[in-house]
Design goal:
11 helices; 13 strands; binds adenosine-5'-diphosphate; globular; 9-stranded mixed β-sheet; 4-stranded mixed β-sheet
């Protein structure tokens, strides 16, 4: 069975149903990717979530949720001083959604500090893939970021494939220069990159997906998938570029986790031996299903109706 380590934050999500009534779930970019990857690949992959939670009841529920999704929680460390981050999705009278976050002191920020105290690199090996995002990087202290890059180098030396999605969130970085410097380091260590064109437009001033491809090729990334919403993706692997279209949908309901679900589908395809193009086709079908539904994670029943198509 292939081993995948997914590093980052899972938060408590409060989704407004009607005035002052909220549905509680768990979500976060890398968690969403882990769920869709595991659901797609079923028993062939063991996905270990590397993160931290607190010692409170909500943290227990978060771990129970990981286990319900058949994700391995053995690398989720417990902080005695912090709790999971939280965000609320509110909808105004015009149907516009807005997000408010409480994550500045979340337990996930301590993940690597706790890993250094209580865990060991041996617990991560052997592994096939280490997956992380720009959000996983953004929430760390500068010292922990340096440690993460050293850890990734060590994993690479042990044959682990490194996969990175920048998922740029300006509010999580003190300034764009620091963010670019960290993303450049992350890309330079990555075997597979899954950037969104929109992120690169804002952060690097890229105009087209081809610009992003050229930039990441220069940094030495061997497999690149540039996502561009309904315009599909521009991919690159084995020295050749290719296009793969999005799957049109009748009505977009909620684009939350479009990119995360695409990544989960793409990873599961690649780890199960599909080509980059076939993996893009599966991932696009999955992401199009996700944007037709509310919330980051579709229910298991909805997912079954997707897989049975
Ligand atoms: P990111 O959030 O990482 O920038 P995108 O917004 O490009 O990701 O979306 C990822 C994938 O989700 C796209 O490549 C496409 O397959 C699918 N997708 C996103 N928006 C739509 C849409 N409106 N219709 C159909 N598919 C979509």
């Amino acid at each position: 069975m292939k081993q995948v380590i997914i590093f980052g934050e899972c938060m408590v999500e409060l989704f407004q149903l009607v005035d002052n009534v909220y549905h509680q779930a768990f979500a976060g970019d890398v968690y969403n990717t882990a769920v869709y990857c595991k659901r797609s690949a079923a028993q062939q992959l063991n996905l270990k979530f590397l993160s931290a939670v607190g010692t409170d009841l909500v943290s227990d529920k978060l771990i129970a949720q990981l286990e319900q999704e058949k994700l391995d929680s053995s690398l989720v460390f417990r902080s005695k001083t912090a709790r999971p981050g939280l965000y609320m999705i509110n909808t105004d009278c015009f149907g516009e959604r807005s997000f408010v976050y409480w994550r500045d002191s979340s337990a996930a920020k301590q993940s690597l500090a706790l890993f250094r105290q209580q865990g060991s690199v041996a617990q991560l090996l052997p592994a096939d893939v280490f997956y992380f995002s720009g959000i996983s990087l953004a929430i760390l202290s500068p010292e922990d970021r340096t440690y993460l890059f050293d850890l990734i180098k060590e994993l690479k030396q042990n044959g682990v494939q490194i996969v990175f999605d920048p998922n740029y969130r300006p509010a999580l970085w003190p300034d764009a220069d620091l963010c670019r410097a960290n993303f450049d380091k992350a890309y330079a260590l990555s075997d597979l990159a899954l950037p969104g064109l929109d992120d690169h437009k804002v952060l690097y001033g890229s105009a087209t997906a081809a610009d992003v491809l050229a930039q990441l090729q220069k940094l030495g990334v061997k497999e690149i998938i540039v996502k561009n919403g309904p315009a599909g993706v521009l991919g690159y692997s084995d020295g050749k570029s290719f296009q793969s279209p999005a799957v049109p949908v009748k009505k977009v309901i909620d684009t939350t986790a479009a990119g995360d679900s695409f990544n989960g589908g793409y990873l599961s395809g690649r780890l199960n031996g599909l080509s980059p193009l076939a993996s893009c086709q599966y991932a696009a079908a999955l992401a199009s299903f996700v944007v037709e539904h509310t919330g980051a994670i579709v229910s298991k029943e909805q997912f079954r109706s997707f897989s049975g198509r």
